[in-house]
Design a protein that fits this description.
single chain; mainly alpha; Alpha-amylase
């Protein structure tokens, strides 16, 4: 297996059936939750 990272594939891969998630996928989820959180000072609301 190649050790080269595939960011596009990793961002959609939840690693279902394992005990955790990959770092790229988790970072994507964290970013999305921050953007949608109205308690976040950078929250911009609906467009």
């Amino acid at each position: 297996m190649s050790t080269t990272k595939n960011h596009n594939a990793d961002s959609h891969n939840a690693n279902k059936g394992t005990s955790g998630t990959n770092e790229t996928y988790q970072a994507q989820l964290d970013n999305r939750s921050n953007q949608l959180n109205p308690n976040n000072p950078e929250y911009k609301g609906k467009k």
